[in-house]
Amino acid sequence: MVQLLPLNDVGFHFRPYDADSAFALDPMYLSLKDLKGITLDAFQGEIEILRRQFPGGGDRVNYEVKGEKLRVLWNIFLLAIQRKNERFEAFRATAKYWLGDYVLFRVLKQVHHQKSWMIWPECYQDRDREALEEFRKRHRRAILFHEWQQWQLYEQMKAVRQYARENGVFLMGDLPLLVSADSADVWAHRRYFDLSRFSGAPPDAYYVQGQRWGMPIYKWSEIEKDRYEYLKQKLKYAEEFYDLYRIDHAVGLFRIWAIPQTEPADNYGLNGSFEPPNESDWERNGERLLELILASSTMLPCAEDLGTIPVCTFDVLKRLCLAGMDVQRWQKDPQKNYSFLLPQDFRKNSIALLSNHDMSSFRGWWEFEASTVDELAFERACKKANLSISATKRKLFDLGRSRYDRLRWKSNVKDVKTLCEQLGLDESEAAEFISLYHHSFDEQGKYWRFLSMKGEPVQKCSPKLVEYALRKVNTSASIFSIQFLHDWLSLNPAFKVDSWKFRINFPATVCDENWSVTMPLSLELMIGLKINAKIKKINEDAGRT
């Protein structure tokens, strides 16, 4: 099973969960050598220049490649359109629901220098029929170019899926719950979206200021008026490419954290509220939408049920037999001193994980997060208790070993009694500090013992520790075990990366580091790695082959 991140077209901002379309795939993923209906003899020079200009092997993606690749594709397209292709026409019929709006949006964006549709001339903002028809006539070739790109992507992704099937591999897609405010979907179906509020996530133990994503929330009542055709068509198109899919932010189908557009960006997700506001509506909302999703596609959905999740979400997933996600580092038993949950106690209908794209890799967690407290969460607790932040930190934490806004406990804070004495608070006053302590103190020691490792925990994560962790997670009761490529590669002693910075995304942040990391090893090299035999053995020993 291969799980992918979203492949939707992101325009030129390169954030896969903030896409310009819930349907269209991104043309930067096109394989030039596999284009249909064209020979590339006349373009080999341009393609070679492109390869030299954007060589592989760097630490980060240079996304300027997209603009240059589109320029080469345009030249190829000008030759290709001289030849009639019946498969192209069939694709246009397959994608009829969304293709016309998407390609018109793409060309309008290009003409208006990629500016948001919200500041286009009113006739285009408001989709004046005569103005759009006139625009189509003037830009017929450019519109056809974007249709042609999407057809080529359709053909190539279908071929990938067929190849996977022939080799006994399931492809798992990722369907973002939301789309960008500046997207073809919002422009074409404005009444489906509440543009006065941003989506996000409430404060929790990991993101104490919450998260502000910026995408608009849905008006489900408006989508319902059209019998949920928008949602059904999204699934129908994805079904062409995937066997399974991840329901991104599945809890958003029950309720979503909505932040007023007027709220300052520096407040992140602090001052939002749930929509719908009545908790009594959440279970009914989620169950109705998930039942619709199940009935609308043959793909197997798996729910991303991570974060702040109401109990009703787990109840509904269980009733509908939908797999959730159990992250090993977060599965703890409060009744047993917050020790790690035994593999046999994971939910059977779940995906067992060590890491995912919104988290540090296993190595990053072990070296920088395990046995530590989030600094902002601790500072917030100090403010509530009217304690000096700097003095309290010096009492409780080894600041010399604390990095990346993670505070590492001093070894002499050995129990709750000692903690309260150092704080000068009784247990009822120190409840928030005690919760932070239980979740983090001696976390590395508890995990070390959970793996049945010998001796004392080491600070540096070794390939042996990674192997034990992968073996343990693979023996879980979970029906699926899907592990991060970063973690598999960490079995290789030669896999030298910065274990903190080498990650896909730092949630609640917008920076060039996000969504740009590349593997230091090519796929061709990965195929020949010695650890492949070990990976196979780990899966065989766990009965997952």
Strand order of the largest sheet: 1-2-5-8
Any idea what the shape is?
globular
The percent range for strand residues is 5-15%
Average pLDDT reading:
96
Q: Please provide the count of β strands.
A: 15
Helix content: 40-55%
Per DSSP, the total helix count is 22
- Give the terminus-to-terminus CA distance: 11 Å
Largest β-sheet summary = 4 strands, parallel
The structure class reads: alpha/beta
Q: Radius of gyration over alpha carbons? A: 25 Å
**Spans of at least 5 consecutive residues with low confidence:** none
Give an overview of the whole structure.
With 545 residues, the protein is an alpha/beta fold. Among the domains are: 157 residues, no CATH class; 70 residues, no CATH class. 41% of the residues lie in helices and 11% in strands. The protein has 22 helices and 15 strands. The mean pLDDT is 96.
Attribute tags:
globular; alpha/beta; 4-stranded antiparallel beta sheet; 545 residues; single chain
Short description:
With 545 residues, this protein is an alpha/beta fold.
Write the layout of secondary structure elements.
Blueprint: E1 2-3, H1 44-53, H2 65-80, H3 86-94, H4 96-111, H5 122-125, H6 129-138, H7 140-166, E2 171-175, H8 184-188, E3 193-201, E4 211-218, H9 220-225, H10 229-238, E5 244-247, E6 256-260, E7 273-275, H11 282-295, E8 300-303, H12 311-319, E9 324-327, E10 332-333, E11 339-340, E12 350-353, H13 362-369, E13 372-374, H14 375-385, H15 389-396, E14 406-408, H16 416-423, H17 431-440, H18 443-450, H19 463-474, E15 480-481, H20 485-489, H21 523-527, H22 531-541
Parallel strand pairs: 1-2, 2-5, 5-8, 9-12, 12-15
Antiparallel strand pairs: 3-4, 3-6, 6-7, 10-11, 13-14
